[in-house]
Design a protein that fits this description.
CATH class of the largest domain: Alpha Beta
Shape: globular
Bound molecules: zinc ion
Oligomer: single chain
Structural class: mainly alpha
Helix content: 55-70%
Number of domains: 3
CATH superfamily of the largest domain: Metalloproteases ("zincins"), catalytic domain
Order of helices and strands: EEHEEEHHHHHHHHHHHHHHHHHHHHH
CATH topology of the largest domain: Zincin-like
Length: 453
């Protein structure tokens, strides 16, 4: 899908496309939802989380569509920039970064921040973690007024907040490194990626002479820390262990998608320069062709990939996207259904996509099916705010305005826009019989105190 999305319960002003991020006047976090990449990062994280004694079900992974190398934890969420995956040539490099972040998570290193995030519940605060220091400073000083955090945030000096509040302490860095090494050992994975990622970042940072890299700024890595990592990593019996080829392929397919979405065919070529005939490079090229607005050429390219590897769910998903763009919604729904069937992670995003395509097709007789499909997707993934919009459209087409308004209210609620959620819930409620299940659902949204969420 690679659809912009929201981190449930966090968003107010959110999800500007990356191309416009620099001109953003408000702090924003471009969260993306994509079944393929989410599934991959989950597969990277889950063994590490278990090794850390954490329950994977209780930790949420949030993808941030930003090409800068960054990852961080906040509360029970792991945020990872797509740029971190793109820059990692092997799964093991991303896995190393995740292991380190999970080390911070397990160590409770940001407990003091968590309180503030829980209290403020706004994306502005989370954006502060990414370097919009003023928002962070405002929250920290207790002003907490989101409305007051107006324009110009992104450009104001964020260093104070980063150094003071958001940077981990050096002892915490060492602890996170040690924890990461333990998790990697327990899961029989190489610590080489961890070492390569951090050493690489440090080198780049020293060469450029300025501490411009947010990841480096928030994760202080003095030379002695790299030294420790180097020594400790090489003691691992798995140091020279390579990623399984199937995982490397999935990793490269994800990188191809990220490259295509963030820089088109040019970025795909820069990523896979040496081998443009590889499956990932051609996948990226097919997506870039689709995004450039050439559905016929894109379809031919993705069909060739499907012929070669019919069991790859993401090829069918991209085929669905292309067909949607070409106005062939019924075929798109079938392609998404195929992808959903093949998807080992059973992502709710794909399930919902089937229904979304049917809604776009607009045939009244398909709406019941569309509603059922979207509901199925939402059961798996209640945070999919785009799906609620389509659900509301589907109800609208069947003439059930109350249900359409209730679905809109749910979508706003999941997106963190509680005020609009209550407005639509109140409207919907007037159309239901008092104490009917839908009436009560609307009542819940109307009466729930936002702080509880
Ligand atoms: Zn760190």
């Amino acid at each position: 899908m690679f659809a912009k999305g929201v981190a449930a319960g966090l968003a107010l002003a959110i999800a500007l496309p990356p191309a416009h991020a620099q001109t953003a006047r408000r702090a924003s976090l471009p969260v993306v939802r994509d079944a393929e990449i989410e599934g991959l990062v989950k597969d990277y994280s889950q063994p590490l989380l278990r090794a850390a004694g954490l329950s994977p079900a209780r930790v949420e992974i949030v993808l941030v569509n930003d090409l800068a190398f960054n990852a961080f934890v906040a509360g029970r969420r792991i945020f990872i920039n797509t740029g971190t995956i793109l820059e990692s040539e092997t799964p093991n490099e991303t896995i190393g970064v995740l292991a380190h972040e999970i080390g911070h998570l397990a160590g409770g290193h940001q407990e003091r921040l968590r309180d503030q995030i829980e209290r403020a519940k706004t994306i502005a605060v989370v954006a502060g973690l990414l370097g919009a220091g003023v928002a962070a400073a405002g929250a920290a000083s207790g002003s907490g007024s989101v409305a007051g955090l107006g324009g110009g945030l992104m450009t104001s000096g964020g260093n104070i907040a980063q150094r003071g509040l958001f940077a981990y302490q050096r002892t915490e860095e060492t602890t996170a490194d040690r924890s990461a090494l333990t998790y990697l050992l327990k899961t029989q994975q190489s610590p080489k990626g961890l070492l390569d990622s951090f050493a690489g970042l440090m080198r780049k940072n020293m060469l450029s002479g300025v501490s411009s890299d947010r990841y480096v700024t928030s994760h202080p890595a003095p030379q002695d820390r790299i030294g420790f990592l180097q020594t400790a990593a090489k003691e691992s019996p798995y140091f020279d262990k390579k990623d399984p080829p199937a995982l490397q392929l999935r990793h490269d397919l994800a990188r191809a998608k990220i490259a295509a979405y963030n820089g088109g065919a040019g970025q795909v070529r820069r990523t896979f320069g040496r081998n443009l005939n590889s499956l990932p490079a051609r996948y990226g090229d097919a997506i870039a062709t689709h995004l450039a607005g050439s559905p016929r050429a894109a379809l031919a390219k993705i069909d060739a990939l499907i012929a070669e590897s019919p069991g790859t769910p993401w090829f069918h998903e991209v085929r669905g996207e292309i067909l949607m763009a070409a106005g062939r919604s019924d075929e798109a729904a079938a392609a998404f259904a195929k992808a959903a069937k093949l998807d080992p992670t059973k992502s709710g995003i794909l399930e919902a996509a089937v229904g979304q395509a049917l809604v776009t097709g607009g045939k009244p007789e398909r709406m019941k099916d569309a509603i059922a499909q979207i509901r199925r997707g939402l059961e798996r993934d209640p945070g999919n705010s785009t799906a609620y919009q389509f659900l509301a459209m589907a109800y609208g087409k069947t003439g059930d305005i109350g249900a359409a308004e209730l679905a809109t209210a749910e979508g706003y609620w999941e997106g963190g826009n509680f005020r609009q959620a209550k407005v639509f819930a109140a409207r919907a409620q007037q159309k239901f019989r008092p104490n009917s299940p839908q009436w009560r659902q609307a009542q819940d949204i109307i009466t729930t105190k936002v702080n509880r969420k």
